[in-house]
Specification:
By secondary structure, this protein is α+β, with helices and mostly antiparallel strands. It has six helices and five strands, in the order αααββαααβββ. It has one domain. A hairpin with a 2-residue loop joins strand 3 (125-128) and strand 4. It is globular.
């Protein structure tokens, strides 16, 4: 059996540390823990179409409903209220175009790959119309909603 000299061991340890660091640096923030954004986006689109069961299954409830202005009151709503208001939130104009549109149209016209590249931009949170999507504890979900109080 060959012995490894001190310098050989240092080189081996250093080389391993560099490889681990470079591998970790290539992972975008949130990617390792967040999992499948495309799968979440597909379910989000199905909910926007209206045929995917309860939309609250995609949210972290209870959820904060924030007003459009910083000074607006924050309302915390449960699953039933979320499901009741979801369609109304989809009709909000996200303000991304000179022409009037809806959050529903934005969601339905954006592929999962485009949403991940353009909306997420490597982050673990993004705003899509009135919805804030985020990844916590390995699960993508609707984390907040910004809409005028009813």
């Amino acid at each position: 059996m060959r012995s490894v000299n001190r310098y050989g061991m240092i080189s081996l340890v250093f080389g391993t540390a560099v490889a681990v660091f470079l591998g970790a640096a290539s992972i975008r923030p949130g990617e390792a823990a967040c999992g499948d954004f495309a799968g979440f986006w597909t379910k989000f689109q199905a909910a926007a179409k209206g045929g995917a069961g309860r939309p609250s299954a995609l949210a972290r409830t209870p959820i904060d409903l924030r007003g459009e202005l910083d000074g607006d009151a924050v309302e915390t709503i449960d699953e039933a209220a979320f499901d009741e208001r979801f369609d109304a939130w989809l009709e909000i104009d996200p303000g991304l175009s000179a022409e009037p549109t809806t959050a529903r149209a934005l969601i339905l016209s954006t592929s999962a790959a485009s949403a991940e590249a353009d909306l997420m931009k490597g982050d673990a949170e993004a705003r899509v119309g009135p919805f804030t999507l985020s990844c916590e504890s390995g699960r993508w979900a609707i984390a907040r909603v910004y809409a005028a109080a009813e």
